[in-house]
Amino acid sequence: MRNTLLEELEENGYVIFENFLLPEEVEEVRNAGQNLCLEAPKESRTIFSTVNCNNNQNKEKYFIESGDKVRYFFEEGALDDKGDLIVKPENALNKVGHSLHTDHDVFKKYTFSHRVREVCWQLGYKRPAIPQSMYIYKNPGVGGEVTAHQDGTFLYTEPASTIGFWIALNDATVQNGCLQFIKGSHKSGVHRRYIRNPDKSSNELIIYDRPPPIYPASNFTPVPVEKGTLVLIHSQVVHRSDQNKSNKERHAYTFHVIETDGVTYSEENWLQPNPDASFPILYE
């Protein structure tokens, strides 16, 4: 680990660690992700059909209740109007989340590894916790664009403490939708919040607090990386990824860490811990 880890993160808003996972470890995680494709329950499919979904509130409820569960989110165009797959199961999913780090042995092993603890220790975290995790597919042809955003939009803390761990499970290239960053954009604060709707009479359970900012495409720097690479992402750096236009998959495992010592996790955030528990602690 570089002694200048914190300085580099504060300068650019992200840090790249090559060979964070060994090739055999990458395969173990990737195989676990592939197996999830075969475990997706059929009853969840209609919720995310773009033609015949039950209603928007049901979609939001399925999402908002996923913090302590393993739930499956399908790609646009993966389902017909009856909720049946029109692509191969291994190509149907957009992501699986948000409790893989607690409910799946393989993802739990790597999330709570000594390497992850070491990174957090070098960043100065005293009592880090893990609120969520996701397996992201971005499969050939169907893997959609992820629009420009900040992780702090979704996981807001005061002061800012959210850090993203994004681990490439395939070589991530410009063609298959590697991450792209606006260097230094984390120095301008959180531009937008995604929160639970305070209006209980509304059909919308979660809302944005303001319209999306406009980020010129020329401001983004593509960051292609080889499989096994960790990209550490500051909560306020603006980043995105393009659609996968190649014939190669671009899988990734990602999770977020927050500080809990002297830091407030917003009660407005869409993701809240189970009332009977708290986010799992990495170390203290």
Summarize the structure.
Helix content is 20%, strand content 23%.
Structure report:
By secondary structure, the protein is α+β, with helices and mostly antiparallel strands. It has a single domain, classed as Jelly Rolls (Sandwich). Helix content is 20%, strand content 23%. The protein contains seven helices and 15 strands. The chain has a seven-stranded antiparallel sheet with strand order 1-12-7-14-4-3-2. Strands 5-13-8-11 form a four-stranded antiparallel sheet, with no helix packed on it. The protein is globular. The two termini are 21 Å apart. About 4% of the residues have low confidence.
Mean pLDDT reading: 92
Please state how the strands of the largest beta sheet are arranged side by side: 1-12-7-14-4-3-2
The CATH class turns out to be: Mainly Beta
- Residue ranges: pLDDT <50 for 5 or more in a row? 46-55
Distance between the termini: 21 Å
Shape: globular
The percentage of residues in β strands lies in 15-25%
List keywords for this structure.
single chain, 7 helices, 4-stranded antiparallel sheet, 15 strands, 284 residues, 7-stranded antiparallel sheet, 20% helix, globular, 23% strand, alpha+beta, Jelly Rolls
SSE diagram, text form:
Elements: H1 5-12, E1 14-17, H2 23-39, H3 56-64, E2 70-74, H4 89-92, E3 93-98, H5 100-103, H6 105-111, H7 114-122, E4 128-136, E5 146-149, E6 157-158, E7 163-168, E8 179-181, E9 194-196, E10 206-208, E11 221-222, E12 230-234, E13 239-241, E14 252-259, E15 264-265
Antiparallel strand pairs: 1-12, 2-3, 3-4, 4-14, 5-13, 6-15, 7-12, 7-14, 8-11, 8-13, 9-10
